[in-house]
Design a protein that fits this description.
By secondary structure, the protein is mostly beta strands. The chain is built from two helices and 30 strands.
């Protein structure tokens, strides 16, 4: 692909859901030729095309070819996650003494918003272009009681692609009742190309000194566990596969990395959360966020049954997700940063993926 001179967006029909809803696909292109495609089902990123060190463009995110596959597959490829990213223990929590029972879709836990979370909803979309970026504004009203959560939650997510190869996500929400809110984005990455196999040789750095340790049900125990001297120490760039199969209790529970890192930058501050680097292609990804946590998921439950774009079978650990978030099970862990949203307040969060290349061979 040659370098483009113009920044633009396109929109086209993508299909019709089982329920009869029409779905559109928006494609954003910047002046460097980076391309991002998003469908109105779940705000799903269907393709993410960026250059390597030789200027060769490739799609670096796993996904499917058809709408039916996105509807039926539980992998959350590329989707907006809500109302609550990650797990809530036992699918329940209380606010001001009132108990709420949620949809349970991960054993007894509520995971990623429940059985029909934001990833399965149809979002309204409005494209825009500024002097420096192109993007879409996605909106959705989550009705009081949806998946068991209280309050009518009005949600807006802005996807913005600038000419510096930065893709950002700006989240905001309001509720008419006290509720909980923890939004994130579940794009997976393989910087060698979505169909390139294992990400074990990718190098990862996470700006954190602790993780929230989990129990056998994959929910936090409440303890913060130091990463120093463990396979979770990514305070410097290290290959993901270097220690992922060591005899470590936390790795054994999750089948690899599927944990929340406690970011050193502090809650609400804008700062760097992680860096992902692929020595083969030279592609590099920096994750910046206002969120206090980062879930690193090393594709442990990909098992080859997900047949993606181009007929590619996505095997075990063939992609990694870097989900900015508040900590899992925060509604049941009072000492964790709060995810409570009261009437009259505005939930706000921002995350950016910054892509670049290392020119060294």
């Amino acid at each position: 692909m040659e370098k483009l001179c113009n920044r633009y967006y396109t929109v086209q029909p993508y299909g019709v859901t089982v329920g009869g809803d029409a779905v559109e696909e928006y494609t954003l292109v910047n002046r460097s030729g980076m391309k991002v495609s998003v469908i109105t089902l779940g705000g799903i990123i269907t393709q993410l095309i960026v250059p390597d060190r030789n200027g060769v463009f490739d799609d670096i995110t796993p996904g499917f070819k058809t709408l039916a596959e996105y509807e039926s597959n539980p992998a959350y490829f590329g989707a907006i996650i809500g109302r609550f990213g990650n797990r809530i223990a036992g699918g329940e929590f209380s606010i001001d003494g009132e108990h709420f029972t949620l949809a349970q879709n991960n054993g007894m836990n509520c995971m990623h918003g429940g059985t029909n979370g934001f990833d399965k909803q149809i979002w309204k979309a409005k494209p825009f272009e500024t002097d420096e970026s192109v993007g879409i504004i996605l909106t959705y009203l989550s009705a009081d009681g949806e998946e068991g959560f209280p309050g009518n939650l009005k949600v807006k997510v802005i996807y913005r692609l600038n000419d510096e190869n930065e893709l950002s996500f700006e989240y905001s929400a309001t509720s008419d009742k006290a509720t909980v809110c923890n939004l994130t984005q579940h794009t997976y990455f393989n910087l060698s190309g979505h169909d390139s196999g294992s990400i074990a040789s990718h190098n990862l750095r996470v700006y954190a000194k602790y993780i929230t340790a989990v129990n056998e049900k994959h929910v936090p125990t409440g303890a913060l566990s130091a990463v120093a001297g463990t396979p979770f120490d990514f305070t410097e760039l290290k290959p993901i596969g270097e220690r992922i199969d060591e005899a470590d209790e936390q790795l054994h529970i999750a089948g690899g990395y599927d944990h929340n890192w406690v970011l050193v930058k502090g809650q609400g501050a804008w700062g760097k959360a992680a860096q992902l680097f692929d020595p083969e292609s030279g592609r590099s990804l920096e994750v910046w966020t206002t969120e206090p946590g980062l879930q690193v998921y090393s594709g442990n439950f990909l098992d080859g049954s997900q047949i993606g774009k181009g007929g590619k079978s996505y095997q075990h650990r063939s992609a990694i997700a870097l989900e900015t978030q508040h900590y899992p099970d925060s509604p049941n862990q009072p000492h964790f940063p709060s995810t409570r949203l009261n009437p009259g307040e505005i939930y706000q969060s921002k995350t950016a993926y910054r892509f670049s290349v290392d020119p060294q061979q």
